[in-house]
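Teaching assistant here, posting this on the class forum so everyone can see the example we discussed in section. The complex has two components, and the goal was to see what a joint structure prediction looks like when all of them are supplied at once.
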Amino acid sequence: MSVVSKSGEAAYPIAGAAVAPRCEPSIATAGDYLALMKPRVMSLVVFTALVGMVIAPAHIHPVIGLAALVCISVGAGAAGALNMWYDADIDAVMTRTRSRPIPQGRIAPGEALAFGITLAGFAVAVMGLLVNWLAAALLAFTIAFYVLIYTMWLKRRTSQNIVIGGAAGAIPPMIGWVAATGGISLEPCLLFLIVFFWTPPHFWALSLTRVDDYSRAGLPMLPVVAGTEATKRQILLYCIALAAVAAAPWLLGYAGAVYGTTTLIAGALMIMLATRLRSERDGQRGRQAAQRLFGFSILYLFIVFAALLIEAGFSYHGP
Amino acid sequence: MDPERHGDQVREERTTVVLSKEQARSRRTRSIAIALALGALVILFYAVTLVKGPAVLNRPL
């Protein structure tokens, strides 16, 4: 199903914003370019990658580790910039995104495209040269998946866009692990699954509070296509799956009691908030319940990964 | 060459873009950010070279 047509970068319905003519010198500040890199997403990506790197059973020199994290953050920023370049038309009609640099006319679409491609190439090349080429290949795959598969293909076509596209955001802990070890094993795959199952309830909770926005932009988010009740049911199911997957590292013996206790409590809270959301009717109370779940989901991911980090601090490196 | 046309050509070549205050300020922030990023990269590459030593060119898969 193609909901929104993509007719080229010049045809954006810019909402109430004057686009700077291309012949004019740019008014973009460094802050605009930073905003183009989605710094909040970058911070979560870097944190999960750091955990993947630290819990890996191999020593990585702190300087090499820092270089790997710089590459991962720049790669994530590149993917964000390319996403904003392609999605400038829908960003312009959504309240949440209309103040981004491209819809506001502070950065020209072509500049964002060049910026994103340059950063992506730089991040992958430096990762390969300074860390290892498997990590670089994974980073390149992640950027390509986010831009080509999620942004350009799935986002405007299916309500499962963030389920499949969420894989891109789940790979960074694996990149961190591969940067340290040079290989892949079961543990980083479990970290991948945690972020993968975390993404749908996180984004669907957000989309429940922005149904009008997504509807106006023509994006086939689940609440728009299947309705709020179906979305709440899916959120609950994914929260149950997430709690089970997040407990797996502890159940399989890869993590200790600190992680096990933390993830069980945090998982139970996620399920409780999802159950409460499902029991609420649409309207103000339903929106508040969705906002609570969305807010807690961010805290959830941080807590779960921080527990792994704390255990690694006590020199736990798996069985 | 026609002296009048030559004069027009010179005037055209001397035409420059005059930045507004906002454009000049934006350019300054971009220049500073680029300088800081390049400086950070120089330090990072130097540190990595020290850490890797002669093995800096050895890049296992």
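For the discussion questions: Chain A touches chain B at residues 24-31, 33, 61, 63-64, 66-67, 70, 128-130, 132-134, 182 (CB under 8 Å). Confidence is low (pLDDT under 50) at residues 1-5, 7-21 of chain A. Think about how each of these relates to the inputs above.
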